[in-house]
Amino acid sequence: YATFALSSSGESIYLSDADGNQLQKLKYPQQYGCVSYGTTDDGATYGFFENATRGKKNDTTIYSGRVDAPVLDTAGGFYTDSVIVMAHSVLSGATLRYTTDGSTPSAKSKEFPADGLTIKETTVVRIRAFQPELVPSPTVSATYFINDDPATPIVSLITDEDYLFNKKTGALVKGTGSSPNYDKELEYPINIEYFTGDGMCEINQMGTFTCSGHSARINAQKSIALYARKAYGNDRFAFNPFPTRDYDSYKSILLRAANSDTYATRLRDIVASSLAEGEGILYQDHVVIQVYINGQYWGHYNLREKINKYFIAQYEGVTDEKEIDSIDILARTGTDRFTQNGNNEDWLESLFTHAAYEIILGNVDFTNVRVYRVPGGKWKYLLFDVEACWRNLDKTPLEYYIKPVSAKIQGFRHEPLNALLAVPEMKAKFLTRVAEILEKHFQWPDVEAHFNEVIDVLEPILPRHIARWKNMKLSNWQKNISATEYYARVRPKKIPEMLQKAMKLTDEEVETYFGEVLRLLEETNTKK
Length: 528
Hints:
By secondary structure, the protein is an alpha+beta fold.
């Protein structure tokens, strides 16, 4: 609430009256994330408090410092039959206490055995050090998988059940209030581990999580956004799991539960998005993963880059914090209601590539639009949330993209595109762009390779996912995959005809812009 920030490494604060006379000075030491600092009632002693008491009296017990975090000598990971977990305290005389249900250890938790803790089934272990005159240490956590072949990369989440499923406070449940808990975007602490497909742990750190998505939040398996927060140690996730990116870290990542594609293919969005690689349009990369929460199997997810100002800043090479804060991100129609960050004062986007992909893919959920602008730059589109594609051979969403400038706005602003198409040079540029993308990315051998890359990873893990959620059948999934592949193969051949009707193109124009690519697609996209 202040117009200034305080250094976590320690400094001095001065309290003055209106005339500038100093009333009080406080020199405070280095601070700990999420630990309160203040004074007791008499003001004679300053120190740390175990609990923050915003708006209330400070706790009566004050501490001079904090216990160092204990050390887990046995790394979390994948073991056969059993493992003995060993740990030790950095501070001599401190008592280690632990839990195995995801909860934060308290002074009442069991004391960690000196000869180690034997784990015989997949279990999360959390340990904390306690010393009477000090604030309890940060919690260290790890997951021990027993006879559990990873098969894919794994994300293991560990946190208190109250943050997850409590009816009053749980972020992943509807709750009992007038508005669902999962719509409140409650943000809670959580321990995050990422294991590669060969079982190597790349990150193990505290961060925070929220329930993510929109209408899909009602699904039992919910999408989860994860954030690195400095208050919990690191303000970045120091890894990069995504194959097409060269970044060394992320501010946030998304565990996406396939959302509206949950019961069909679970892969439309990631396969379709991947076809935009190299075309100068920003999209979210992906990794097929499995998730555990507090040691319980939580099924298949698609790990995605999280759309926010930091995601855009990385892609656009923006590093200055003030410039990052000034990045504009608009959703849908770009009205104030859908302004995710910044403002919507200008509308001068370059959108031919975005429109081409949406039309070729046949994304019927055409309201899922994101546009962004970095300081001093032009508006650009994101290819975002296209899982409602490859469902039929209908013209949608073409009729929402190509229509009179004065027509009703539906889901996004169609006026810039159609105003540009009224200019002969721009019309030619748009049609040429569509033909280029069809030729470069929608020949069936290339598209099929993208499908197979995901199917080869996803199909072996689906039986376990289905057993966990009981919301689909493997036979139906296989049928849905076949149907989706059919539309992905046939639809590109229909695009020139659709554009001819929508834009009133002559046969000569169709031949000029699409003749060559149509003959190519007839060869590559016709089933032999």
